Predict the structure.
Amino acid sequence: MSNTLNNTALENLVKVALAEDIGSGDATTLSTVPENLKTKAVFLAKEDCVCAGLPVAAKVFSQLDKDVKFTAKVSEGDFCTAGTIIAEVFGDAQALLTGERTALNYLQRMSGIATTTQKYVEKTNGSKTQILDTRKTTPGLRMLEKYSVAMGGATNHRFGLYDRVMIKDNHRELAALSGNGGITRSVNSAREKYPDLEVEVEADNLDEVKEAAEINAEYILLDNMSNEEVKEAIKIIDGRSQVEVSGGITIERIESLAAIPGVDFISVGALTHCIKSVDISLDIQIDTNS
């Protein structure tokens, strides 16, 4: 996953969101706002935040009226203090009012993810440890949520089930039905079937860490381990695999984990599934020059 949005996928997402909201028509706007009235609106940050989602908000209005002009006043990933005008939009007043809530829903949630993510990243204190997201995303919105994580300064983990082999606890349990050495068999099988993909093994205890390290898994995920257990696991791994720490990670714990030599990644599901949207408003301003 990169810091870009797939335009075709974005078009489809916005189309569905607008259809959900508009239905047979925006009854209030169509009955109260004159046709052909031009106006300007500004997106205003009502609280400090990291901005994310401007291209998505712009897409909302362009789908309603191709002549609407959307002008970003800040860049994606910028920190904005309360009171900052983050974008202006000018065009057909009916289009602006009809798209208002959909555009804000995207912008507020995406900025909320970016803002929370930056707080986690700051806790790494400039170490080499990278904060990762997870697949705990809203169904259908993963592209937008992972993009927002990247805007907050963190790194995207695998996007889906197809771009990395990740042998988790349930995979290990089923592999163990064939006897000892389930991790080794699973890694070997994955490399045979998907030679171009990196392999990650989730380990719940030090015995599993040892087996995963001996088979040279590219990544070993230390799941729900204490800091002392993490340190012991890193000694066992001894540089043979990159180390990811996960499971119940709170922002208060990031600093101590990032200070442990050998912790390459810390993955945090809360970046996308426990998010408070940022308070952003859209204020209509009648353009007296039109």
